[in-house]
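Form 7-S
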Amino acid sequence: MEAVLEAFLSHYNYGMAIILMMIGLYALIAKQNLVKKLIGLNIFQTAIFLFYISFADVEGGIAPIYLPEGMEAIYVNPLPHVLILTAIVVGVSVTAVGLSLIVRIYEEYGVIDEAGLLKMVKRR
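Output:
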């Protein structure tokens, strides 16, 4: 039991990423409000970012910088960090487009929940 607890505590970031994924997935599936669904999508994206960055961590690793001749070092992989920066930009863009679509739906139909939107679309 103690070994399981120690293994969990040494990798708590993976557990937190999974918990955040489940919260975001719940919001995407269970909520009817479109804004809440978009917030759930953002939570899910953040969990993916945390999970992906966790793989880049190397115990005892340092930033990949130039060291003088003869010095040895273990480097942290910079590629996941660069990819996540790109993913953050894409995530912000998706959020902006999603919010603008929600505003446009509200202007057109006067509702922002899924069930009300389906009723309004069926009436037309």
